[in-house]
Amino acid sequence: MASQNPNPDPKRFEVSKGTLRLDTFMTHFIKVGGVGIILSVFAIFIFITIQVLPLFQSAKVEEAAVIDTGVTDFHIVGVDEWGELPFVVNLKDGSFTFIDIKREHEAKPVIGPRGIFTEHPKYAGKAEFTSALYHHKSEEVIFGTNDGRYTLVKVEYTPEFNARSERTIKAKLSADKFFPLGKGLGAVQAIDYYDADKDRLVAALVESDTGLQVRTTTFKRKKTPFGVGAWKPADEYNLTDQIQGKPSKVLVTGQGNGVLISTVEGTVYFFIIEKGEIGLRQKFQPFGEEGIGSMDWLLGNESLVFTSDKGENVIFAQYRPEPTEEQLASGEEVRRQFAEINSLPNLSGPADLYSHSMRNRAFLLASGPEASIRYGTTGSIRWQKTLGFTPKAGILGSRYETMMLADDAGSLHFFSIDDPHPEASFSAFFSKIWYEGQDEPKYLYQSSAADASTEPKFSMVPLIFGTFKGTLYAMIFAVPIALLAALYTSQFLKPEYKKVVKPTMEIMASLPSVVLGFLGALWLAPILDSRYPSVFLILFLLPLTAAAVGYVWGQLPQRYRIYLKPGQEFLVFIPLLLIVTIAGWELGPWVESKLCVYVDPTTGQEIADFRLWWPHTFLGGNYDQRNSMVIGFMMGFAVIPIIFTIAEDAMSNVPQFLTSASLALGASRWQTASRVVLPTASPGMFSAMMIGFGRAVGETMIVVMATGNTPIMDWNIFNGMRTLSANIAVEMPEAPKESTHYRILFFGALLLFLMTFLVNTVAEVARVRLRNRYKTVG
Amino acid sequence: MSEKKSKGFDTKMRPAGEMYVWLCGMGLASGIIMVIGLLWIIVANGVEVFWPRPVYQVKMTDGSVVAASIVEDREKKVAEAGGDFKHEYKLFTGNKDVGPQFRYVDHDAIESMDVAEGIWMADREGSGKAIFYPVELTLADGKTVSAESPEFKAELQGVIDAAEEARHQAEVIDKGVIRDYAAENKELVFEIRLLQNNNPDERKDLQQMDELYKRINMLGADAQDQRAELMKEYDELASRGGPFAQLMEIHDRSTTLFKEYEEYFIESDALKASIKTTTLRYKLIDGTERSYTAGEILNFYQPNEFGFLDKVKFFIAHFWMFVTDSPREGATEGGIFPAIIGTFVMTVLMSAAVMPFGVLAAIYLREYAAQGLFTQAVRIAVNNLAGVPSIVYGVFGLAFFVYGMGSWIDSGAEDPMAVASWSIWLIVAIVVLVALLVLAQEGLWKTRTWMPNKFRQQAVSGLSIVFIVLLGCLIYYSPFFNGFFADRAMLNEPTFGSGGVLWASLTLALMTVPVVVVATEEALAAVPRGVREASLACGASKWQTIQRIVMPASASGILTGLILAMARGAGEVAPLMLVGVINHVEELPIDASYPFFHFERKFMHLGFHIYDLGFQSPDSEAAKPMVFATTFLLIVLVVVLNLGAILIRDHLRKKYATGTF
C-alpha cells in the first residue's frame, strides 16, 4: 500500500511555484503600492509648496534685442500699451521717431515691416524746445520752449485688426497750440502739467532776466453740448519768492490742485491751490540736509519716489495725520501731507532715469550704468544689474512685461520682464506696511482692489490672528467641559453608563461642520443676540451650583449619601443643569437692567441693552450679531468630542494598579483622580488639547457661516474675524488661476497645513511617549 | 496635636474633594445635554417642516385681517421701552403674488386670533403657497363649478390630475426627445464655432452668415418679403464656397434636425398650453377676489380640518415629495433629489477610490514595513494627515485634479516636452524597466529564493517607484497627446478642466485615505499573533496568510474605517466648494443618456445645499424650513453611518476580547 512507503517523495512538501510567485509578486506590489501611496499623500505638501514658490522669486529681466534708432539727441522714450510701436522724441525739432516692432510668440522683438520712421507733429509755428516730459497714462508729451511757452502733443495709438485678427498699431500725432507761461520769460527748464476736461494746470521752472523762476499757470476752457472751447489762461502764480535755494524739479499733483517743487539743496515745497489762492501746505526735507537727486510720482500720483545725491531711495505719500489737541479744540480741518512711508536700499548715485509701471507700484531707476526695478509698497528690489551701457532714457512697458532703455549711441535695448508677482514678498505677508491713504503702517488684508490706483493688500497677519482668535474662544469653551467630562467618565462614571456616554460624545464629533455653522448663524446667533447677560449668568452659575451642591453633599452624613451611588452624580445634574439654565435665562434681563444700562446721549433715555452698552465699556469694541462667542460655542461642539475622546482614553489607560494602590492607601476618589491619574495622564491630555486645537484651526464652514468674515485684528469677543481657512473658501472660486491672489491663497493653505501638521505631530509624539511610559510602568 | 490628627481621618467618612467630583459631573452633563439638545433642535425643526400647521384668522388692531400660520413666537428688545422684551409672531401668510410671504406682528398689534374654519391651502407652480377660500372653478369647456357644489373638490382634483398628467407628458418629451435635440443642436453650434475659429480670415463674414440664418429662422410665416431679402444675402455669402459652403451644410443639417423634431416641440407646447385652460376663482380672507390658473395648482388641502391621521398622511406625503422631487422656486419649495443623488454618487466614487489605496497602504505599514523608528514616524505622519484641514485638500484638488489632470485630459500638457528630449527620457524609462525586470526575474521566475536577497528586493522596490514616476511624467509631458476635448477647451468650454463629481470624489478620497489607513491598521494589529503564526506554521506563504487569515479577520475593522471615511466625506463641504459642487443642476451625474455616468458634470450636495440655501439664497426666510429639512436628512445620514461604524467596532472588540490566543 502506498501509505506504507517510509520515504515519501520530498517534492510533496514543496510549495507550488505558483504560490511562491504570487507571494513574491504581492510582496513587491504591496511594498511599491504602499510606499507609493504614502509618498503621493505627502506629495500634496510638495505640490502646494511648488504653487507658492513663485511668490518669492524676484523678477527675471533679460535683454532681448538691441535696435539702432538712428536718432541720438533724445531724452524721451514712449511706448504703446502693446509694446509694438515705441517712439523716441528728438528735442531739437520736436520730431517723433517710431520703431515698428514685431514680436512673434513673445520672442525677440525685431523691426517690423514699417521699419523706423520719423514724424513731425504739425506745430502751430516755429519754436525751439528746451524741455519735455512724457505722461505715460495719457500718452501725451509736453514741450517747453526757449521763450517761455509750452505745447502738448498727443500720441494717439489705435490698434487695427485685419481679417485674420492680427494687430497693427497705428499712431497719430496731434499738437496743441503754444501757450505762454507768463510774460518776459526765457527757456523752460522743467515742466509738468495736469489736464482734465475743463481745467489744466502747468507748472514750470523758467529762466528769466531775474534768474530761475517757478511759475504755475492754470488754464480753463468752456465745455458745452456743442463742443469745447479753446484753452484760456486763468490764473498765474509766481512761486519764486517763496522758495529758498535752487529749484531743480517741478511736479503737479494727481488732482491738479497742487504743485511740488524740489530744490538742489534738499527741500521740497508743497503748494496747494484753493479757491484761486495758492498757499504753502508743507515744506519737508526727505533726506535731511542732503540734496535731492530725483523726485517722481508712482502710479496713481499719490506717492513720491525720491533719490538723494548719494543714491538713498525713499518713498513719501500723502496721509491725513491724527489731529492734534489744538486742532481738535479749534475744529480745524486736518490737512493731508506727505510723510515717508518706505525706505529702500541705496543706489550708487542719484537716479538719472525714472519710469513707473502702469500696472502696479513697480518703478525703474537708473543711476549711471546701474539699473534697478523696485516695488514701492513693499520696498523690495525686484531686479538690479549694472548694465554694459549707461541708459540715458527709458521706460517700463505698460503691462510691466517689457522695458526699453536707450543708450548714448541712440540704440534702444529691449528687455523682457518676467515678474508675475511683484507685490508679494515676505515683508508684504508678515510685516506692517504703510499703504497709500493710510495714516500709519498696518497689517491689512484686502485681496481685491477696487481699481488700478488702489492696490491689493496681502498681509497674512490678520488672517493668522483671526484663526487664533476663533480657536482661542473655542478652546476656552471646549477645554473645561471636555476635560471635566473625560475625567468623570474615566474615573467616576459607572461602567454601564460609559457604554452609552462614549458613543454619544463620538456622534457629536461626526456632526458635519456645515450643520454647526448653519445652526450657529441662523439659530444660535439670533437667540443669543438679546440674551448675552443670561448667557454669562448661566456660565457663571453652573460651576457655582455644581461646586455648592457637591460641597453640601459631601458634608451630609453617610446615611443620606448612600442613596446616590458613586458614578451617578451626573444623572442628578441633568435636571439640575436644566433648572440652573432656565433660572439664568430668566434672570439675565434683570441683571442686564441693573448692570448694562446705556444712556442714549440724544434723548437721555436709559436703555438696558447689552448690545448698546458693550461698545462703551472699557473693553469696548463693536457688537456684531455673528460674533466670536457664537463661533466659540459652535466650534466648541466640533472640538469637545475630540478632546474628550482622546483625554478619556489617556485617563482610562492609566494602569489600574496605580489607582488601586492609591485607593487602598485610603485616598478618596478625588484624591486618586487628581494626584495619581491626572499627573500620569497629563501628556495624553496635552495631546488631546493639541489635536482639538488643530481641528479648530482648520475649521472652515463654521467660520464662513457664523462670522462676518472681516479681516480685523481685535480680540473683542463680540465681533468676528476672518480665518485662513475661511479666506480660502470664500476667495478661491474667484481667484484666476496662477494669479498672485491664487498663489497667496495657496500660501494660506500651506500655512494651515504646516500649523496643523506641527501641532498634531507634537500631540502624537506626546501620546506615543505616554503609551510607552505605561508599558514600562506595567 | 492629637485633635489635628483625628481631623485627617474623618470619622464621619466624608471623602475629600467631593465638590470637584460634582464639578466633573457637571462637565459630562453639559456635554451630553449639548449633544442631545443639538440633535433635538435639528430633528424638531426638520420634522416640523412637513407637519401641517393650523391656519388662523388674525385680526389686527388696525382692522386688517390676514390668514396665517404661526412660524415662530419670538422676543425682541425694544430700545424705546428702555430695553424691555416684547414678543412678536412671525406669521406665514403665503400668497406670494399678493404680498410678502412672511410678516412680523407684535402681540400687542393683534386683536384676535381664531382658527380659520374651512380655509384652503394650495401649492402652486410659480408662486408658492396660497391660503384662500375657493369660489368657482372654470373648466376648459367653459363650464363653471361653484365651490358650494358637492362635486367641486372632485372636479378640482380632476383638473389637477389632468394638468399633472399633461405636465408629466411634456416633461417626458422635454427631457427625452427634446433634450436629444438640444444635445445634437449643441454639437452643431459647436461645429459652427469651431469653423469660425479655424478660419480667422473669414470669421466676421461667417458670423454674419450665422446671424442671418438665425434671423431667417426667427421670422414668422407672414414676413415673406423680408425672408426673401435675407435669403438673398445669405445665398450670396454661401456661394463663396470653402468654409461658407461648410457652414451652409451645417445649417442645412440644423434645419433638417429641427424639422425632424418639430412635431415634438408642437406637442410639448400644446400640452403646456392645455394646463392653462382652467381657472380657479378664489377669495382671500379679507374678501378680495382673485383668480389663478387651476392647472398650475399642485395640490390643495384644508389644514384646519385635519385629524391626526390626516396629518400623518400629509407628513409622509410631503416628506416623500421632499426626498424625490427637484427643487422649485429658488429651492424654497420642492425637494432635494438631485442633492441626494449627487451626495450618493460622490460618496460611492470616493469609497471606491479610497478603499483599495487605504487598505494597501495599511497592509504595507503593518505587515511588510520593518517596524522601526522610520515606520513609526511615517505612521505618525499619516495619522496627522487626518488632522490637516479639509480646505487644504480642496485647494490641492483644485490645482492638481482640476487645473492639472483635468486640463491635461482636455487639451494635453500645457508645455509638452520637445520630441527629442522626450525620446531620451523614454529610453531612460525603458532602461529602468529592463533593469527592474532583470533584478526581479530571479524572485519572480526562479522561485528557489526562500530567503530573499534584501538589497535586491529594495532595489526592485526603488526602481519600481522610479519607473512609475518616470512613466507618469512621460505620459503627462507627451508631445503626441493633445487632449480628448481640445476643441472645446479652446472655445473655453472645459470638460474635465473644471470641477466635477470625479474630481470632488478623488479630492475627498485623498482626504479620507488617512482615516482608512488608521482604521485598517488598527484592525490588522488586532488580529492575534497566534493566528498568523499558526497559518505560517502550516506552510502558508505570507501573502496566503494575509489573504486568507488576516484580511477576513479584520474585515469588519476595515469596514468601520470605510464607513467613518464615508461619513466624513458625506458631511464635508469646504473642499467641495472648490472642486465642482454647484447650487443647481439640470443634469444629474447619472442618467439614462449614454454613457450613463457623467463624471465630469458638476453636482449638488446636501451639505453645500445647506450652505447655499441658508446664506446665498435671495429669499432666506422662505428657504429656512428647507435648510432645516436638508440638515435633518444630512444628520440622519451621518449619524446612521457613524452609529453603524461604532456598532461594528464594538462587535469587533467583543469578538477579540473572547478569542485571545
Q: What is the total number of structural domains of chain B?
A: 4
Structural class, judged by helices and strands of chain B?
Answer: alpha+beta
Oligomer type: heterodimer
The first-level CATH class name of the largest domain in chain B: Mainly Alpha
Please compute the radius of gyration of chain B using only Cα atoms: 35 Å
Q: Please indicate the count of domains of chain A.
A: 3
How much of the polypeptide of chain B forms β-strand, as a percent range? Answer: 5-15%
Structure characterization notes:
The complex is a heterodimer of chains A (778) and B (661). Chain A contains 16 helices and 35 strands. Chain A folds into three domains: 60-446, Methylamine Dehydrogenase, Chain H, CATH 2.130.10; 461-527 and 625-777, Orthogonal Bundle (MetI-like fold); 531-608, no CATH class. Chain A is elongated, with a radius of gyration of 38 Å. In chain A, 37% of the residues lie in helices and 28% in strands. Chain A is α+β, with helices and mostly antiparallel strands. Chain B is 61% helix and 12% strand. Chain B contains 18 helices and 13 strands. In chain B, strand 9 (279-283) and strand 10 form a beta hairpin.
